[in-house]
Structures are given as C-alpha cells and as structure tokens.
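Design request, tokens follow.
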C-alpha cells in the first residue's frame, strides 16, 4: 500500500485536469494553517499548567522555527520523492504532534507539549507547507502566482476555520466553558479531547490531498502555452538551478532579506493585534474598543491576510514579481508611517491601514514561490523554497521581539496608548526600506549556476536531484 506514495504512481494520465490539484493542496494548507489559531486555547493551557504566558507562547515559536528548519532540510527530499509521499509524511507528523501534545496535557508534562505540537507538529508544518508548491508551479507554468496563491491562501485561512471550531469543541467537551467570554478557560480534559479530535480530523482531511495529488508528465504543457512568451518577461528564466547552487547566488540571499523584512513587519502587527487596537484608542485608562470588537478585528485581519495571498499573487502574474514586491514594501512603508502618526485619530482609519498591511504580509508569502520559479526555474523549486523559509523562522522570532521589547519599555499591558507603539512602527518602516532596496538589487541568475539542459530533461527530478546531491 505504501508503494502508492511513490512518485511513479502519481504521474497524471492524459487528459487529467490541473484544476484538481489546488483542492488537494488546500486540503493540506487549511489543516496546517491551524497553527495561527493557537491563541484560542492559550489561556486555558496557562491555567491548566499553572504557568506563564511566555512558557506557553514558546510552543508557537518552536513550531514556526521547526517549520523553517524542516522545510530547509527536507526540501530536496520532498522534490526527489514527490508530493504524495511528502504530504503523507506531513500528515503523520502533524497528527502525531496533536496526539503527543494531548498526552502532555493529560499528564501535565509541558515538555511533551513542546515535543508534540512544537517539534513534531513543526516538522509536519514545514514539509506540508512546501510539498504542493513545486507541483502547482509545474501544473500552472502560465500562471504560477495564481496557483501558489490558491494553495497558500489556505494556510492564511486555516485559522478562520480552526478558531471557531476549537471554541465550539471546547464548549462541547466542557459545558462550563463560555467561548464568548475572554476570561473563560476550558478544563484539562476538554483540552485533551480537543487535541485528539483535531489530530484525527486533520489527518483524515489531509489524506484527501495525499491521494488526489498528481504530477504532470514530463512532456505535458497547458493548451496554448508558449514558454518563450513567458521567458520574455523580465527576470523570468527558461534555465534551471539546483537548490545547492541557488544558495550560492546573490539573488537568493537578497530575496531572503526581502521575505524576512516583509514578514517581520507584518507579524509584528499580527501577534499584537487585539491589544494594539484597544491601546490605540485608550483614554484615561479606558479603551473605546471592547474585547469583543478587538476579537472581530483579529478575524478581519485574518480575512485580509488570506485574501491578499490570492489577490496579490495573482496580480503578480500580470505586473511581475519585482514590481509587486515594490508595492508590498514601498506602499507598506507609507502605510506604517500613517498608522504611527494618524492611526489613533479614527478607528476606521486604523482598521483600514492594518488590513491592507496584513494583505501585503499574506501576499508576500504566496508570491515568493513564483518569484523563485522566475529566477531559478522549476527544477528543485520546492527545495529552494524550503531553504528560503528560514527567513520566516527568523522573522517569527524577530517581529514579536521588536514589538514586545519596545512595549515593555513603554509600560505595562493595559496602560499603553498609541504613542507607545510609534518606536516599534517606525522600526518596521526602516526594515521595509531595507527590503525595498534588496528587491531592487535582485538580478537574473548568472549562467554558471544553471543546470545542463540535458540533465534536467532526461528524466524526473529524482534523477537530477540525486545527481545534484552527489556533487
């Protein structure tokens, strides 16, 4: 049965519709996108383990760090073994993370939660995140931005499904838990059953993606597709670069800086969204924004984060990858400046600015695989993407540290005002400026890094990946 996971059994037959691939990718990304919903049961975990916010927050940090590291380390393996086997491994690690985490909650062993949801789940996150990307790019060589946007949109939308689902499950397993009350906490047994339910449920949903994903035949092309017309666009190559060679190029590291700066700036708002909107409109110790309204604001940000992943990456197919990142970073600088100086004057203005900023944050994630395809070709693009995602790991640590560091120096939570956020927001403007310059400096990859054409054309990525690894 396990042989069905091999790449040779996933080649699509003639006439197979490429539009069946995005739903398979969405099945994976919607499940692993649950990582953005951990705040739903954070207070319940704090109460259950009788520990600090920092001790529980580390679980999320471990998961994000492992996402980047596992994507970087396993990227070449994913390319060589194909999307079906990689997606299956991702499902196993992701489900195991929940089940080991449930054991940790049941036994009150916090380290098991770190090991389960953080370490094992983080590995599942990384492998699952990159596993469908290169396959989608191969199926949609004419619209790579649209294809990756469809899948990665699911990662941004995963929290929109997981947040209300987790609240309802907790209230089902613990009738005393009130999901409408921010101060209500669920019992330990309810948390255990939540983790078990999510682990089993997500595994079954991810199996839909595993058994429906296909790779195109080596000679397949979309109807009417002309590779020469695509290659005529700036920065788009018809050559191919291995993952080992890609990290030797200046363009890879410049794009690493671009992604790091864009993510650091966005995650700073995302991580602090609920208290931030309350603090911006605080007067004499009382905020004009209620806890419920702040929760609605977080949901709205998630919606724009998800929509931006599809809208902006699809737009990049029309105007190009470098210009769209000039929008993310250049317009982002203007929006952060306006937020710092005038965000406190009107709630509608604050919400509008924050939502557009978060749409750029999401768009940056979904556009980068297509940017990599333009620069390095389709050969091992998933492995290159995995290495680039270490920028996300670094940003996941740097963004909250920058914002929380400035806020800790300004005062205690619940007493802060808009002025306390200005140093952090202006720091984000500086980071976006660095990313903007890095994007301008990206150039086509020199020919000396290209793979020999015959080596790439003679077989699947398995052959070429092994050859690249033996150098």
């Amino acid at each position: 049965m396990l042989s069905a996971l091999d790449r040779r059994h996933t080649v699509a037959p003639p006439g197979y519709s490429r539009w069946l691939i995005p739903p398979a990718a969405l099945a994976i990304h919607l499940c692993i996108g649950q990582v953005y919903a951990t705040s739903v049961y954070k207070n319940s975990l704090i109460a259950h383990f009788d520990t600090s916010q920092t001790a529980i927050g580390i679980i999320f940090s471990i998961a994000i760090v492992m996402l980047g590291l596992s994507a970087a380390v396993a990227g070449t393996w994913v390319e060589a073994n194909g999307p079906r086997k990689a997606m299956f491994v991702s499902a196993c690690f992701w489900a195991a993370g929940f089940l080991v985490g449930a054991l940790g909650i049941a036994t009150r062993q916090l380290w098991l939660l770190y090991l389960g949801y953080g370490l094992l789940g983080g590995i599942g996150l990384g492998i699952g995140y990159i596993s469908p990307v290169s396959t989608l790019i191969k199926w949609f060589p004419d619209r790579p931005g649209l294809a990756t946007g469809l899948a990665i949109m699911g990662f941004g939308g995963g929290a929109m499904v997981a947040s209300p689902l987790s609240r309802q499950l907790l209230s089902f397993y613990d009738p005393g838990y009130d999901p409408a009350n921010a101060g209500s906490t669920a019992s330990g047994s309810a948390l255990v059953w939540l983790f078990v339910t999510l682990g089993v449920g997500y595994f079954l949903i991810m199996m839909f993606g595993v058994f429906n994903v296909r790779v195109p035949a080596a000679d397949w092309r979309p109807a009417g597709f002309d590779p020469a017309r695509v290659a005529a666009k700036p920065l788009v190559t018809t050559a191919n670069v291995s993952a080992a060679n890609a990290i030797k190029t200046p363009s890879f590291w410049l794009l690493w800086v671009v992604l790091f700066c864009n993510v650091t700036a966005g995650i700073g708002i995302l991580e602090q969204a609920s208290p931030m909107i309350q603090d911006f409109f605080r007067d004499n110790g009382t905020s004009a924004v209620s806890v419920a309204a702040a929760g609605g604001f977080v949901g709205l940000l998630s919606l724009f984060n998800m929509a931006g992943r599809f809208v902006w990456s699809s737009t990049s197919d029309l105007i190009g990858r470098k210009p769209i990142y000039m929008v993310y970073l250049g317009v982002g600088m203007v929006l952060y400046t306006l937020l710092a100086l005038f965000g406190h004057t009107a709630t509608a203005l604050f919400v509008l600015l924050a939502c557009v900023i978060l749409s750029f944050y999401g768009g940056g994630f979904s556009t980068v695989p297509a940017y990599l395809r333009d620069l390095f070709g389709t050969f091992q693009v998933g492995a290159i993407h995995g290495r680039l995602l270490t920028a996300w790991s670094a940003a996941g640590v740097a963004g909250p540290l920058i914002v929380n560091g400035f806020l800790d120096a300004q005062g205690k939570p619940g007493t802060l005002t808009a002025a306390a956020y200005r140093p952090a927001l202006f720091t984000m403007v500086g980071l976006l400026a660095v990313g903007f310059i890095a994007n301008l400096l990206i150039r086509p990859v020199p020919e000396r890094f290209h793979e020999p054409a015959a080596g790439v054309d003679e077989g699947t990525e398995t052959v070429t990946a092994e050859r690249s690894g033996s150098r």
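Comment from the thread starter after seeing the answer: thanks! Strands lie at 282-283, 286-287.
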